[in-house]
Structure formats: C-alpha cells, structure tokens
Amino acid sequence: MSTLIVIAKAPVPGRVKTRLQSEFTPREAAALARASLVDTLCAVQFAPATRRVVVLEGAPGPWLPLGFEVVEQRGDGLDERLAAAFEDVYDGTPMLLVGMDTPQLRPELLGFEWHGYDAVLGLTDDGGYWCLGLRTPDPRALVGVPMSTDHTGRDQLRRLLALGLRVRILPTLRDMDTPKDAAYIADEFPSLRVSRLYRRLQHSAHPGLLFEQALGGTARVVATGIDGRTVPPLSEVERWTAPADEVDRLALSRCEGPVLDIGCGPGRIVTALAERGIPALGVDVSPRAVSLTTSRGAAALHRPVQDPLPGEGRWGSVLLMDGNIGIGGDPADLLRRCAELVRPDGLVLVEVDPDDELDDSTPIVLRSSTGRHSTPLPWARVGTRALIRHARTTHLHPTEDWRTPHRAFLTLRRTA
C-alpha cells in the first residue's frame, strides 16, 4: 500500500487553465478545472491506499470529498513545490503523486505493487508527466528539473536514473491543457464529469465570447438562424477589420458631425471619420472591438447603446452600419433610442438588407469553427420598406433610400 497525493490549485477563475481561455471564459475554464479535479479525486478515492492527501494551492472547497487530508503547498517553482509535497506528506510508506489534469485517470492505474522499484513515472504525450512516485522523499530527485517544457518527462526520468533509482514506467496519458485536449477527453471518455460539462459548454457559449474570437482571428464564426440557416451578421469580419471601402466612404459623405457609430466593431468607420476631421465616437459591447478601435487612434466606448451615452440629444448623426439595426432584435426600439441620441434635426443612417421586404426578428446562434455554439442572440434583419414601417413609431422621417450592387442604406432625419 502507498500514500496517494493529488497536487492541485483551487479552481478559481483566472488562476487555473488559462490556456483553455482561448475558447472559454475564465469562469468556464475554472469550471472545467474543477470538474477535472473532481474526476481525479474520485479515481484516487477508489484506488487502494493507506492515505489520501491533497497538496493544495488555495483554499479547499465543496469539491473536496471526505477522507482526504489537506496540506498547503510551499516552495517557489513547481520543482520545489513537488519536492516539498513529498517531504511534508512522508510517513514511511511509498508515495505516488498525481496532478489534476488527467481526469481520465482510473483507480486500477494507481493500484500497482512497489516491489522492486524505488520510483514511478507516468509520462504525458505533450512531454510532461502525470504522476511521480518516490519510495522516500529526496529533493535531489526534483529540484532543478525544468518544468512545463516539452521535455520535462525525459529530464525527470534522467534525474531519477542518475540517482540510481529503479524506475517503474506507467502508461502514457494525455493532459487536459488546451481546448483540443478537452475535446479529445470528452470524445474518448464521455462519462466523465469534465466531459459532460464540456459538451454543455460547447452548446451554451456566450455570444460575446464567440464574437471576440471572430474579431481576434482565433476562430471563424458564422451566424445561423435557429433552423441552422446561415445569416449574414458575421460573414464579413475581414471587411470590418479592413480600412473603410468606397461604399463606406460614400455613406460617410452623408454624415453631419459629430457622429456616433453604434456597434462600431473594430473601428473602420470611426477611423475613417477621424481621418476626415469629423468628430466621432464608437460604442460597442465587445471589449476587443473597443480595443481594436482605440489602437487605430479613434475614440470608442465599451457600453451598450441602451445605457447612458455622452452627448445624448446632441449628435449630428448616428450610424447603424453593417446590419447593426439588428442589435437587440427590435428595430423599432433601436430607432427610438437613436432618435433620443441625435439633435432635433439630426440624421440616422442605417445599412439595411438588400431585400426591401425582409423583416425577420428570429434570434441567431453563433457557431465557431472550434465547435462551440452560442446561446440564442436577439437579432433582426430588415429591408428598406420594413424599416420605414418600424420608423413610423418614432420621430424619424425617411429622407433617402440608396444602394450599391451589394449593399443598401436608408437615411432618416429626426423631426418634431
């Protein structure tokens, strides 16, 4: 029999599984870390052992099952922390230490005989290792071994052999460090807690997260109706991130300053206005969009359009480019908000759908090339005639309907 040790971090958002945050929010990544830890503890709980210990960074939580002792981690680097864990837990019996990143771990992997061996090592396919066992603690076995590299496992094995230890090698496992790792584990081990959570998260992403991925170029994102039919809102991200084109400039020539660009995205319109010397401000709910806009030297504010905004009632023009009339799924409500923002004779310029009669307020779902689907996002798609009907409930009067071969616009002016 032996002592089983789990070295772990408390699953606090932003402090665990940061590499998962390329596709998941910090809270989601922490939830996956917690599920992985619970799966690991469950395997350890049912493996034969004289003691079960969690060597923990952070505070224990309700995820900790009965029957585990808790020892606080100490040391600076991971090599020192691992060495300290063996020293602090040692009670005369052999010790096997595992991490929290291999939730597919099974109890039978931990129930081997130590007879004839001084150390145990289980490698991972990314070059690290998922377990290390020592019959007795020895800092020389760990301190100075480079950690978190693609050769840590090989370096650790060399260190053990250099000390003259007889090493038993356990099967190679896959760590859950990246989104691809999480997808692999969910496919290969579907009954795990972490796998079930992964599948739920795949179909319940926040739309804003996928929009951030699209703007950042980390994934291709498309929008579909509830029925799976592709719709345009995210089909032109490359155009949004490029400088304003000829059609954009034609639209901007109609603007009267100062200009408020609602849903400014990465800021091509606000930038083009600034280059013309026209005061302009972009607003967007996406932090990345605001960051991209300000990095271009333009002004932008991270705020929903329905929240209080600077200069309410004094803007010369309000823009709803790139189909942003769809924001919120209620065009009439958004037009009423625009009427509040412009001055008494101000303009609202709306890019509408080329289909004049289109009036579709079906929610959309964002789908990422990484496999994630968002929760339904309220959205609307309207053509010119439909928008004129919506404008009848506002103080906005249509003044110009114009179009190019692939894009259509309607200009409205506020009236008493």
UniProtKB/TrEMBL annotation:
Gene3D superfamilies assigned to the protein according to its UniProt record, in alphabetical order: Spore Coat Polysaccharide Biosynthesis Protein SpsA, Chain A, Vaccinia Virus protein VP39
InterPro entries per record: Nucleotide-diphossugar_trans (IPR029044), SAM-dependent_MTases_sf (IPR029063), Trfase_1_rSAM/seldom-assoc (IPR018641)
SUPFAM superfamilies: Nucleotide-diphospho-sugar transferases, S-adenosyl-L-methionine-dependent methyltransferases
Superkingdom of the source species: Bacteria
Protein name (database record): DUF2064 domain-containing protein
